Amino acid sequence: MSQNSKFLHSLDEDSLKAWLVEHGEPPFRAKQILSWLWKQCVEDVESMGNVGKALIQKISTAFTCSPLVLVRKEEEAETTKFLWKLRDGALVESVLIFAPGRSTVCVSSQVGCGMRCSFCASGKMGFVRNLEAAEIAAQVLYIHRRLAKNGEGVTNVVYMGMGEPLQNYESVVQSIRMLTDRFGLSRRRITVSTVGVIQGIEKLSLEKLGVRLALSLHAPNQELRQKLIPFARKAPLKALLSAIDRFRERTGREVTYEYILIQGVNDSFEHAKELASLLKRRGGSVNLIPYNPVSGVRMKRPSGSDIERFRNVLQYEGIANTCRYTKGKKIDAACGQLALRSSS
Question: Is residue 41 domain-shared with residue 18, that is, in the same domain?
């Protein structure tokens, strides 16, 4: 491992002060450095104008300031996909999605994914490694810096990119604290998605983070769910929903249930009725996502009329629901499509 193996972004104020004192520098520099990193979102130490050349040299020797390097970006209407290279050469993607009044960054938490969901491109890659907290947070900082050039900025963050966030629990929670405590993002504008890691849901419910939770449900019963999501065999639906109920009770936050609609698989009238029955007294809302094509996967999205029929059943049964407008499909940036296509 190289001499400057530690990410500068990983240090909080106390640890940075201790390092400064150890290296003969005044501790007040810590606030200046952290401001440059998290408020100005600088990409390199040399951009820290009031720090001094001698200290810049010391920092450059001891730390890595740039966890990510932008390899490529692709744009389509209101969506931009970023391909990043990490320090070890691994690649990850994140997506910027514009909507009226908000700019949402969808971040990756792992290189690849071990959940092997049948409809997801990331799952076909398999699991490579977890991202460090600084590598997760840096996706937001770098995109924010680009938006700031036009007087804009990141308003929301969703942990819905590559990987299962709750299987990289410590780094994900640490990155959330970085983005709220240092970057200044509202906790209520952060959503963590999971396919159902029960232990992670239980731990998250006790963290007092105030973030939102989204459950990738995708089926109204255990038998169908474990066909679509192999990991579901380790997380029986009854136990999973009990964990979700405890999350709601402990945090006071409603949960969003994500449901990818796949033609002839989980989109029937009966499936809609079963889903409504499952969620009847659980609050929250269902986010319906028409299936996005993935190379090598023989699945199709339902017709518009079938989607409306499904929604109407939920509405009739009193289940709040939305249908996610697909953005970024042409650049493989839509839900379930992230798989490093741009790396080839």
Answer: yes
Q: Let me know whether 214 and 144 are in one domain.
A: yes
User: Do 39 and 120 belong to one domain?
Assistant: no
Write out the two tokens for 136.
Answer: 């997760």
**Which residue type is seen at 283?**
G
Q: Which two tokens stand for residue 332?
A: 């493989």
* Structure-token match 């979700």, residue found: 244
Q: Which of 112-126, 144-158, 194-208 has the lowest mean pLDDT?
A: 112-126
Q: Residue 328 and residue 96: Cα distance in Å, rounded?
A: 10
For residue range 220-270, what is the model confidence (pLDDT) as tens digits? Answer: 999 999 999 999 999 999 999 999 999 999 999 999 999 999 999 999 999
Question: For the whole model, what pTM was predicted?
Answer: 0.91
DSSP state of 121: H
Q: Are residues 76 and 198 in the same domain?
A: yes
CATH number assigned to the domain comprising residue 49: 1.10.150.530
Nearest to 8 by CA among 51, 86, 64: 64
> In which band, very low, low, confident or very high, does the pLDDT at 74 lie, cut at 50, 70 and 90?
very high
Beta strand 91-99 pairing with 79-86: antiparallel
**Positions marked catalytic:** 93, 335
Phi, psi of 75 (to 5 degrees): -125, 145
